[in-house]
Write a structure and sequence with these properties.
Blueprint lengths: L1 H10 L3 H14 L4 H17 L3 H14 L3 H17 L1
Helix pairs in contact: 1-2, 1-3, 2-3, 3-4, 3-5, 4-5
Length: 87
C-alpha cells in the first residue's frame, strides 16, 4: 500500500510527497526487498522528472548492483539505458 500511495502522489504531480513516501517506506520496511526496489525505481522516475538525471542514474545503478531479483533489475536496466540515451 505504501508503494501505491507514493505512485499515486507521483502520478498526481506531487513528486515531493511521493519522494517522502518512498523514504518513509525504506525506513519502516527495510526487509521488503521487492517493494523497496520497486519504490527506488519510482524514486529514480521522480528524480528524472525533476531533471536530476545524476541522482536518477545512481539510484538505478544501485538497484542493478544490489537487487537479487531479475524482474525489477531488468526494469532498472531499461530505465537506465533510456536515461543514458537522452544524454
Amino acid at each position: 500500500a505504501a508503494y501505491l500511495l507514493a505512485l499515486a502522489h507521483f502520478e498526481q504531480g506531487q513528486a515531493g510527497l511521493a519522494e517522502d513516501k518512498v523514504f518513509a517506506m525504506a525506513d519502516r520496511y527495510p526487509s521488503y526487498e521487492y517493494w523497496l526496489a520497486k519504490s527506488y525505481i519510482l524514486l529514480a522516475d521522480i528524480y528524472a522528472a525533476n531533471e536530476n538525471v545524476f541522482q536518477a542514474r545512481e539510484t538505478l545503478k544501485s538497484i542493478i548492483e544490489n537487487y537479487s531479483g531479475d524482474d525489477l533489475k531488468q526494469i532498472a536496466i531499461q530505465k537506465l539505458q533510456k536515461l543514458e540515451s537522452k544524454e
